[in-house]
Amino acid sequence: MNVAMQNDALFTLKPREFYLSEEIFAQEYERIFSKDWIYVGHASQFPNKGSFLKFRYAGEEIICVRGDGDLFYANVNVCRHRGARLCSADSGTAPAGFVCPYHQWRFDWDGSLKNVPQMKDGEYFDYKDFGLRTVHADLWHGMLFINLAEGPVEPLAQRMKAYDGVGAKFDPARTKLAHEEIFHIAANWKVVVENGVECYHCRGTHRALSRVIDVASLQLQMGDWMGDDAVASELGDPQQLKSGLPTCSADGSLITDKLLGLCTSEDHGIAGGINMMPNPAYIAFYVDHYWAISVRPVSAEKTELVYSWFVRADAEEGQDYDLAKLVEVGHITQTEDVALCEMTQSGIRSRHYLPGPIAAKVEPGIRDFAESYAKLMC
């Protein structure tokens, strides 16, 4: 992404190696991925004390685990003895902590070393010096975030302060995960983000989305999502619905009567949004549900995109909502986007690829993403 601007209205992205090079991907870990909070999931995915999920991001594996109440821990999935992967399961419950399958070293949820066979604490070394590498973990309105930075970080509550209006209105803490789908994309993470922050392509590609979302407004609003004044309104960065539609569904009708947070029937049609950059995630709120897209870099040419749908905590599938209706628009749209991203990555691999012109008024989100990326990579 080259922000060498030709003028204020036209610029080009960086050359092909920024989408192909593992060396540049490693630099991105140091300068981007490990510098800010990353959206992981929701507290409802950790139903019990000791419930855990294994979170993968940019080649690292992090074990996220629930302690007492709303206390969460996050530990690097590497045993401090010989480096074996401590946890092989993607999720589960570890009521007594984690035991390395190699030599049975046992660690508590907070990463502290608790027991080593044939090596008493203090006999050869002090257990306190060989706990797991931990990373920052915290909840915001029921949403779990981690931060891979090694030193002190900005508190999550402060980082998310601009979205306090979204949290108060839709109350995601009192929701639950209804469905989740992982898309494996053969493309660089920046290709995926660039596709996601412009709606220039939406009319021609996303017919299901275009029936319910005000695409023209969204295309322009994306320019307000990532600048210095990144939050467009007290409800964040929303994908606005077309006039008269109460929610985001294939026909615009409500998915469930169990409305979120403070929403009432008078709020039909409102929308809210949380846009997380530079570690990309977008969360879109409507009166009766919300969905989250989390972009997780894997390597220079591989990306995972996790698409999650949420409903109010007391809503029951088959009784209060139909799962197929809940996921329809998002599943169709993301399947289309995967094809677009992989098609683009394939073209970038060509030795003859040269970045073309980007018009800031047409694709303002790409402009802002390119500018922020360039600053972070300096």
Give an overview of the whole structure:
It is a single chain. With 378 residues, the protein is an alpha+beta fold. Helices cover 24% and strands 25% of the residues. The protein has ten helices and 17 strands. The protein has a seven-stranded antiparallel sheet with strand order 2-11-10-5-4-3-6. Mean pLDDT is 93; it is low at 1-6.
β content, as a range? 25-35%
What low-confidence regions span 5 or more consecutive residues with pLDDT below 50?
1-6
Give the rounded overall mean pLDDT: 93
- H and E string: EHHEEEEEEEEEEHHEHHHHEEEEHEH
Helix/strand class: alpha+beta
How can the largest sheet be summarized?
Answer: 7 strands, antiparallel
Task: Quote the distance from N terminus to C terminus.
Answer: 12 Å
Assembly form of the protein:
single chain
Compute the CA-based radius of gyration.
Answer: 22 Å
Strand order of the largest sheet: 2-11-10-5-4-3-6
User: In which range does the helix fraction lie?
Assistant: 10-25%
Shape: globular
Extended strand count:
17
Number of helices: 10
